[in-house]
Amino acid sequence: MDPSGNFDVTSMAEGELGLSSPSVTYEEPASVWHRLARDHKISIVSIVVILLFVLGAIFAPLLTPYEYDAVSLSERLMPPSPAHLFGTDEVGRDVLTRMFYGSRMSLLIGIIPTMLSMAIGTFVGMIAGYFGGKVDTIIMRIADIVMSFPSMLLAMVVVYTLGGGTFNVFLTMALVGWAGVARVVRSETLKLKESEYVEAARIMGVRRFRIIVRHILPNCLPTIIVLFTLDIPAAILTESSLSFLGMGVQPPSASWGLMVNAGRAFLYHAPWLCFAPCLAIMVIVLAFNYLGDGLRDVLDPHLQSQ
Amino acid sequence: MLVAPLCGLLAQGCASQADRAKRGSVVTASATEMSTMDMAHNDSVYWAQLNIFDRLFETRMVDGQATVVNSLCTDYRRSEDGLTYDFTLREGVLFSNGDPLTSSDVCYSFSRLLTEAAANTEIPLQIKGGEALMKKEADRLEGFRIKDNTHFSIVLEAPNGGFIAELSSPAMSIVNERVTRTAKNFGKEPTETIGSGPYYAAEWVPNDHFTLRYNEHYWGEEPTVKEAVRRIIPDASTQDLMFQNGEMDIISLSEIDSLIVQRSYKTERASQIVHNQQIGMTFVALNETNRFLKDVRVRKAICMAIDVNDIVHNLMCDDGMRQNGIIPTGIWGHNDKLEGPPFDPDGARALLAEAGYHDGDVSFELALSSNGPQLLYETVSNQLSKIGVKANIKVYDKAAFMEKRLAGEVESFIGTWFMDYNDPANIMAVFFGSPERSKGRSICYPNVDIMQRVSAAKHIVDDERRKKEYQDLERKIVIEDRAWIPLYEGTRLFCTGDRVESFTPFWAGYEDFCVKDVVLKKEARA
Amino acid sequence: MKGSKASNLLRRLLYALIAIVGVATLVFVLLRMVPGNPVATLLGEHADKETVERISSSLGLDKPLPVQFADYLLGALRGDFGVSLTLGKPVAELIGPAFVNTLWLALAAALVSWVVGIACGLAAAIHKSTIIDRLFMGFSLLGVSLPVFMVAMLLQYVFARYLHWLPVAGVTDWTGYILPAIALGWGSAGSIARLVRSSVIEVLQQDYIDTARAKGRTSTQILVLHALRNAMLPVITLMAMQFSGLLSGAFITETIFSINGIGRLAVQAITGRDIPLLQATTLLCTFVIVMGNLVADLLYNVCDPRVRKEA
Amino acid sequence: MAQRTLEVSHLNTSFFTERGEVKAVQDVSISVGKGQVVGIVGESGCGKSMIARSVMGLVKKPGKIVSGSITLEGKELTSLSEKELCKVRGRDVSMVFQEPMTSLNPTMRVGKQVQEVIAIHESLPKEEARRRTLEMLSAVGIPEVEARYSAYPHELSGGLRQRVMIAMAMVMRPRLLIADEPTTALDATVETQIIALLKQLAKDGTSVLIISHNLGVIAQLADYVYVMYAGRIVEKGSVFELFDNPSHPYTHGLLGAVSSLRSQTKVLQTIPGVVPNLAHLPAGCSFAPRCKECMAKCGSEQPKLITVNSEHEVCCHLIEGADEL
Fold first, then answer.
1. How many Å from the N-terminal Cα to the C-terminal Cα in chain A?
2. Is it the case that residue A40 has pLDDT exceeding 80?
3. pLDDT for B406-444, tens place per residue?
4. Any domain includes A76
5. ipTM of this complex > 0.90?
6. What's the alpha-carbon Rg for chain B, to the nearest Å?
7. Are B322 and B401 in contact (CB under 8 A)?
């Protein structure tokens, strides 16, 4: 299925061991990190994995003796060897080197558009939820339009309108992603708006902007953090699908999606071309998903199933 | 997991895919669907034209040299001044619906290209009165004179030594006048698209498959293939798999990496490989309005920095031939004495320095159309970077690329031109025939005199003189002006499946071919 | 009560209509912002500028934009989407059969994802925190983490290339749907499994499950009679929405397996800059998604008595 | 002594978590006679509900009955298989839960939910089962039973839902009804009605084990009371004896925390501190850390159950000390 945006955001709350009456209450509330380490060890592993990838991306030039774009036609499609641990690609470039450089692009694609869509979605969602009325109706109808447009198709159309290229892919994915965030944040805001302390702040004459920033935003944060963590892998997958259809990042930039796309013609005859980037996509997406799951359990935001 | 046992059951039920092939039928695949079978509206996919229709003449490969042979026309005579041609049509030719072929069908076919006024107007426009017909100032083609059912003559506006070769172009296919005149959907509806070729269109599910079936009225020798299905498979690796799985009988290997072809097809199926020179030229176009590229020394440096032998040997696994001119090998008028500059990066650097440029000074856009040869681009760009020239690859969507190119705004690109007919005009005039044409190809060649001569060369009736003039001009453009950077002529490889005895591709090396040139093994015949 | 229910339905329909018209407008505007004349690509290498302009005007591409937009909307209402630039046929004729192919594919994929997803989710929920749970959940997380094209290519190589059991691509008979259905259903099977698991676990912690046990029901009876129906409520919604997703999102699967469906048409329309075809496919996909959401809402209303009465 | 309806002796129920054993119920013995109403009282989290669950055989997964015996009319329940337990539950012993809002299946009509119990334990024709269901529903005081039969839980008020729960528990005429905080979620007027209904049931011969943190409810309903603290019975006695003469400091505290009409003091007393973590119980008396009258001995030695009089036993070093003096 279309990989983007299909992560169910249902609460995976497991209920602490089902201890209904002898509750283990009155303990010091552990920090998020402690609870992650205690109940979701795999989240910690995920964080380590993600950090490793980030380090690999930052220090790519130090980790490999090759240039990521050094064409060497006499060394085309060489199988893995001590000189080229993951072999060479169809124009003789070192696959491992391109993996390191590709992780820059793929991580950026995971993070930057997601941050953008989070920012837009949060802002718009809070405005819609807080002010209600016509503003809400208009914003939510626009969000409806974006959401009824199959995300992959919208991305393809926007990429084609703007042309390929890194920046446009960033923009496209942000444009596609904000609506879902806006919906969740809006419903959260609606709930918070009715809460006593917001009511109290309003009665005391606190300005609306201040209420939104000081009272509503911080309480939406857990939700936003979890959404963010779960949207990153979705973005990486969307980019790889776009690249697969030739509409993502354009060469000679390297991204994992692009490498898989180039390598798929060689899947049978030179599998190392696909293997490494596929594995990387899989691992990083799994890591972010596990981390997202863990954060969701620990932060327990109010995410509905839709 | 649930799937595995299910598939096990299936495996028992269905035999190997190859055993399911229908006798007398071949399956082939292409990534691109035709938009129409109508030659007046299509010029990129020739599958329908080559198999459903005939032309007055055909071009065939004879000993590596393209040669024009008779087809629907059995005899012709050219007048002294090269303006008038008298033709004799083959007797007893029937269309696939049983109608007889007459001179009137030929006249209608040529006139129609002009009245439709879309693609392929260039050749009939040379016939006297062609311009008037196209502009609707006349209602018939003045230069086309019908004598009787099998005899007619054509008068040209100006002499053209390559006219007969041009008549073998797929665009000049002969249609059935009676059916086509009344057709609502010629070219799209199989029953309304009638030709005299060896096959007729039996079924067309756009985007899925197109089926040809043998035309019982065909005048030529009966082919062994009675049915040909052309499936649309956009993905080259899927085609590869399908062929390996026995689901296809003939595969064009041009979209599969040459090294893979070398490692798998050439080693495992060497005897089934069919080579065919692609009569066409791959070249680098440099726009002379660019502030760097207008300097001939820069163009020459670029020329010297591209290691064509490396590309042909390593990127193409020697499935290609280095070219030094404009007129490709295999075309009449090709000059094999032309010599390109040697691969010499140091010399190139020196030339750049002489022109006043240092490392990184020269920088331009190398425009790649979204479906273009990406590896070649990356290779060339990388080779140029070694002499300090930045050729930045920029990917454009096909339409955007076309529009930019037609407006003369592409800074540089790598293109391939395939020949439609066996005459130098088919490439020289296209790129250097006039300032407009040169601009439309984003070369923007400034030398007006040369272009006038290219345009006029076509009208030289004497073959030797015409050849000499073309070669002269070619030398000026390529060697002196470096306005055209030739790379190579490719070889198209086909691989035939176990059911195919022999196969002859189309002379110009298109992916499309004449199905009648496929011979099935005895056991696979109907 | 009835009045409010009807007006609620009307409001939803209105929203759906707004969304569809909105998408239609959005696509129209986006496509007109693109540089490059689609006709140029169509005519190919041999065409010169004049020919391109002549053909463009014959296709009405030179009319003022508002006029083109009006033509397009009015045509769409009549089911006339113009003629495809790349395939040369009326778009409506192309979309009909393509939609049927896509529908079959989506049904097959839905079957795969529902059966596999619900089975895995249930098994994991019942054996919560055991090795079975970890295995199935790892499996389903892999389902949502693997790009669909990787699954598709893997299936092609294993079942077609090595085992020769199934055709690589294309649909000549029903066996052609098996691999694409698995590839397409795989991802949504993963998310369904995750939702089923969490939903069943949540329901199994509800007090009424204790009540049922106190009545003397066995675990299996409880699961079937009490837990499943309640646990399936959110799942049904997800399934309805995913089905519309399958119907309108098989771009990659249809391309890899060469199935002549809506998804591949859309991809071809984009790469070929086939504006009429692209407009029609996006409109169709949007319609499907909007209807899917509507059906999901209605299904939820039907299945959950709490919502049913409130509406 | 005549055969008791329920006899729990030396019951130990623990949870086995990653961080060790949590002893939810320790060495608890309880006895309920026929037609008797027995109450268990204690703060939340002290293990009351675990006793109920242990009796029902409904202890959830990491939890387990470690030792002890539970007999229902002489029949040992702890050794029964799950299948045999299913036959007992709902027929011989049934349970009413605290939350009427969530204890009913939201997607099932309430009548069906009651009728289901009959279907599980008896093969009756549907009509007959329905008739009995309707009878039972009206017996617990539900008006317009025909209409209510096909209502969904969310369409009923809290009180009605609890009545449905009671109907469900009583429809098979069980020997023992366990009511776990049956009125906690209800408002005061409804509470009174439900208490009256339970009283009526006891009068009709059903033994009732009622669990509550609300001493008021216990005082109104129970004949005999057990006071629980941190998984142990700390004091037990007949309702009058216990309320008139509380011996354990904790019971004192509990009573002090209730505003009573009889009480002369205006200020409510509270028990300082909280229920200790069951995973890390102090070595001696578990109430010691909160006890105002704590002695040195309390921190190290577990007190034994001491008989105050024939109707009253307590588990406290203070009493022991009194004896010694």
1. 18
2. no
3. 889 999 999 999 888 888 988 999 999 999 889 989 999
4. no
5. no
6. 25
7. no
Nearest CB to A161; choose among C19, C34, C245: C34
The distance in angstroms from the start CA to the end CA of chain C is 8
Asked whether A288 and A45 are in contact (CB, 8 A), the reply is no
Q: Please report the pLDDT score of residue B62 as a whole number.
A: 84
Residue pair B324/B336 in contact by the 8 Å Cβ criterion: no
Domain count, chain A: 1
Assess whether the previous peptide bond of B341 is cis (omega < 30° from 0).
no
Chain D meets chain B (3+ C-beta pairs below 8 A): no
Q: What is the mean pLDDT of residues A167-189?
A: 86
Note the pLDDT tens digit of each residue in B253-265: 988 888 888 888 8
Whether A218 is covered by a domain: the verdict is: yes
Q: CB–CB of C238 and A305 under 8 A?
A: yes
Query: Residue B305 pLDDT > 90, yes or no?
Result: yes
Q: Which partners does chain D have (≥3 C-beta pairs < 8 Å)?
A: A, C
Axis-axis angle for helices B374-385, B296-305 (nearest 10): 110
Q: Find the Cα–Cα–Cα–Cα dihedral B359, B362, B368, B373, rounded to 10°.
A: -50
pLDDT in tens, C249-294: 688 888 888 888 888 888 888 877 788 888 888 888 888 888 888 8
Domains of chain D: 6-92+174-324 (3.40.50.300), 103-173 (no CATH)
By the 10 Å C-beta count (0-12 exposed, 13-18 middle, 19+ buried), A289 is classed as buried
Question: Which residues of chain C does D104 touch, with a Cβ-Cβ cutoff of 8 Å?
Answer: 208, 211
Q: How far is CA B507 from the centre of its chain?
A: 10
Pair of tokens at residue C36? 């490059």
Domain span at A104: 87-305
Distance CA B391, CA B370 (A): 17
Q: What is the three-class DSSP state of B286?
A: strand
Of A24, A110, A105, A25, which Cα lies nearest the Cα of A60? Answer: A105
Alpha helices in chain C (DSSP H): 2-33, 38-43, 49-58, 65-77, 91-126, 131-145, 148-155, 178-204, 207-215, 219-221, 228-248, 251-256, 262-271, 275-303, 305-310
Q: List beta partners, residue B57.
A: B70
Residues B358 and B362: their CA atoms lie apart, in Å, by 8
Q: What share of chain A is helix, strand, coil (3-state, %, to 5)?
A: 70, 0, 30
Q: Is B501 on the interface with C (CB under 8 A)?
A: no
D103 burial via Cβ count (<10 Å: 0-12, 13-18, 19+): buried
Do residues B80 and B159 lie in contact, with contact meaning Cβ atoms separated by under 8 Å? no
**DSSP state, B270?**
G
Residue B255 C-beta-side C-alpha neighbours within 13 Å: 21
Residue of A148, A245, A267 to mutate, interface with C, max C Cβ within 10 Å: A148
pTM as predicted:
0.79
**In angstroms, rounded to a whole number, what is the distance separating the alpha carbons of residues D186 and D200?**
19
Does A305 score more than 50 pLDDT?
Answer: no
Assess contact for D7 and D31: CB atoms under 8 A.
yes
Domain of residue A206, CATH code: 1.10.3720.10
Checking if the pLDDT of D305 tops 70, the result is yes
Say whether A17 and D279 touch across the interface (CB within 8 A). Answer: no
In a domain, A252, yes or no: yes
Model confidence band, residue A30 (pLDDT cutoffs 50, 70, 90): low
Contact B118, C51 (CB under 8 A): yes
% chain A with pLDDT above 90 = 7
pLDDT at D266 over 70: no
Residue whose pair of structure tokens reads 């054996």 in the numeric block:
C127
Mean pLDDT of B108-115: 93
- pLDDT (tens digit per residue) in C91-113: 888 888 889 989 999 999 999 99
D2, pLDDT greater than 70: no
Q: Domain for residue A70, yes or no?
A: no
